[in-house]
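Phosphoinositide phospholipase C
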Amino acid sequence: MYVHYLLSDPSSPSSSPVLSCSSGIQADDDLKSMFVGTVMRKIKSRTWKKQRYFRLQEDCMTIWYKSKKAGNTHSTFSVGDVEAVREGHQSEVLLSIADEFPPDRCFTLVFRGRRGNLDLVAESAGEAQSWIKGIRKLIDNLENMGQREKLDQWICDWFKKADKNRDGQMNFKEVQDLLKMMNVDMNESLFDKSQSGTLEDDEFVLFYKMLTQREDVLRVFQEYSGDGQKLTLQDLKDFLREEQLREDGVQQYALKLTERYEPSDTARMLQVMTFDGFLMYLTSPEGSIFNPTMVELYQDMTQPLCHYFISSSHNTYLLEDQIRGHSSVEGYIRALKRGCRCVEVDCWDGPNEEPIVYHGHTFTSKIFFKDVVTVLGNYAFKASQYPVILSIENHCSVEQQKVMAQHLTQILGDKLLKTPLHGKFPIGLPSPEDLKGKILLKGKKIGGLEDSMNGVVDDSLMGEVSDEEETAEFNDDHHRNDSIRHRVKKSKQSLSKELSDCVVYCKSVHFSSFKHSQIHSKFYEISSFTESKARKHIREAGAEFVLHNARQLSRVYPSGLRTDSSNFNPQDMWNAGCQIVALNFQTAGVEMDLNDGLFCQNGHCGYVLKPAFMRNIDERFDPENPQNGGYKPLSLSIQVISGQQLPKVNIKEGSIIDPLVRVEIHGVPLDQAKQETRYIDNNGFNPVWYDTLQFTIHVPELALVRFVVEDYDKTSKNDFVGQFTLPFTCIQPGYRHIHLLSKDGTSIPPSSLFVHVRITKLT
């Protein structure tokens, strides 16, 4: 570990923790050169390239930088905010200056959430490498921290913010400010026993214990501990059986937990667990509400593609809204790195016979189609090896369609699937396992798969180019705004044979009716539905929609009226078995929380196997009436015990949150429910509830559970604090921690909830 606490001289009247790097750092040349600092160019565009002085602070967590000009203010960012470091010309900005600076001097810092990248050019390749390798080491160090170390780090970060005079010590005024920053409202007399206005050494110990104590966990520990000091192997086994409902291999599991989480060598040798070890277990992934075996790839990946929910993005090129938003290849990189497996391009004729991508007839900026394809080739399989579907909304002339086909073939090479697997005519869709490492094109096709395999496709055959998705959407919504309607006139253009030949298993077709599809549809055909059309079909013929989706793929996308890039509720569409539910990944909110929640299982691979009753064409599952068939409802009881280190939402001086927890069930209409705890006054640091919430889950296989923390406000809308969403089927029963995420879906350590979960059958 690079980071730990050092205590100043105990005789000092105001002992306090100071963060520093361990001596092991001395041996690391990359980090030593980062401490010294480096002048690098910060690049924003071809014309904006300015020198900045960058330096790693002593805490090994903060990077400080400022302009070379004297008097300019400095800026900082935390290593914890950096998701990845890309080497070379791996961003739009650095690609635009590729002729000016060689790739070995360039790198990009990619931040978590939706924050923009930081593009840098070092003075030499050696300096660039020092920063690239150094930051990666620091990121690895952070990711390997245990929950207790994250808590220490979090407290230390606040100490630094509160230490206004930067003397590395804390007077009482600074301690009071610190507590307010940390969401604690506490009387000074609780720990200023000497009434000296400063923290004496023993008062510091009391203060630190006050910040880190867990009375709620101690209660559980003492309930199972014979002497209140330790858990014997038998005590721990009793706890695992009775509370965590562990059934198999309990003895081996108890020994494994002791070996892994017990910090005391003596206790480990005696095969007992101290309170510290118990707390470390409960805050670890094994003590999480999310079953760790389901975080890994655990599902059968050999079923036909239509038997999976597929993580899908809408208008992937947009980083903002649908009218004036910025188009960027960065949208594709972000979506693919999140495990998205279906991305979309809107293609239009561009200058110099180069097709462009943007939201047609709007003021969104434009990017080249070939740049999107290049990014797809580079990033498609970094997060997951399973196939990527490229959904093409094609508005190009035949000439530029040929250029598109050329780019796809030349840039993607063998990754692009251009013929059916094994060269044989298939009888059904292949599986994600069969298609590993392959990119599939979804678009219009001349004739059928049979025709192209038999070589009967004539060059003169015509195909309708555009899916005309927006036209359908505007008609559905009875939109009468002529200024927007003019852009969606239906056009029939020729489809180039070259582009048509790139489409194999995902031929876009117009949907007529479920009866027509049952008689005439081919397994390789896919229809797209506007959100309102999909809802109408679910209401009127839910069981038929589920059956349709057991045979072939469906795609649902947001209304054309959502010009702000807002999202619809994807759960409604998953309830009907729709596989490709396309969302605006750039827009945070409950809809993307649900998407992240569903796809955070199964190795984040972007594919989740649908329940058996949605894959079997002999079953008649209707999401509107789920009681038919093998109906097995369950009872879910959640006791919300406590919260830990909840983030501040209001930057107003001295404001402290009044947190409440809401538990939401998202599933079939019968399961949609929410309940909340009472709110706790002025305590975001360690609020305690012990409130129990009860739910009945009618279709557990489709349910998602969302935990939301809000700051209660009696006069206005509550402020969002944090959330965590997971599939009901991935919940571990017993005493569990829930590690909260920000609105952007990124982790906010050490913020968590502590709950007790019980799931029972309803007889």
